Amino acid sequence: MTDVALLCLVYVSRAVVPMGDAELLSLLRQARAANSRVGITGLLLFRHGRFMQALEGPNHAVHGLYSRICLDPRHTDVTTLIKFRPEGRAFDGWSMGFANVDRIPESDRGGFSPFLQDDFDPAHWTGAPHRAVRLLQAFKEVDNLVEV
Predict the structure, then answer these.
(1) CA 107 remoteness from chain centre
(2) Which residues belong to any copy of the BLUF domain (predicted)?
(3) CB neighbour list of residue 46: distance below 8 Å, 6 or more residues apart
(4) Which of 53, 68, 77, 120 is surrounded by the most beta carbons within 10 Å?
(5) Contact 12, 79 (CB under 8 A)
C-alpha cells in the first residue's frame, strides 16, 4: 500500500478518566482541526467512557494518527477492529462526525448495536469487524447526529 492510498481504520478504546461534555467538545475540536490539515475524515462515537472511531485518509496520515492515539494517555484498551483499503471515502467532507450515544434516549437505542450495550467487549468484534463498519455507517445516515 502506498503512502497516498486511501486507508480506513476502525478502532475502539476506553477513556482513562470520565469525560464530560466540555472534555469531549475540546477533544472533538482538536481532532477536527488536526484531521482537516492531513486529509483525514471519519466518525467518532462515544458511550459510557468508550470510543469507537473510523479514520479514513491517506495511508501515512491514518497510521500516524493511530500511532498517536495508541500512545495518548487519555485512552486505554485501544483495539483495532478493522483496517482496509476502501474504494472511496464513507465520510467524505466530515473532518470528524461525532455522536455522544449517551445523549440518545435509551428507547431509541434498542437494536442498534452491541457497542451500545453495557457489557460491550471489543474481543467479540475482532472476529466480525463488518459490524463496526455497519454501525458507523448507520450513524452517518442519521440526520441529527448528537453534538456533545
Answers:
(1) 23
(2) 6-97
(3) 19, 24, 98, 99, 100, 101, 102
(4) 53
(5) yes
Report d(CA 35, CA 41) in Å as an integer: 7
Q: How far apart are CA 120 and CA 86, in angstroms?
A: 26
CB–CB of 43/92 below 8 Å? no
Give the predicted TM-score (pTM) of the model: 0.76
Nearest in space to 40 (alpha carbons), one of 26, 55, 23: 55
Q: Which residue has the cell 465520510?
A: 91
Strand order in the sheet with 41-47: 75-84, 6-15, 50-58, 41-47, 97-100
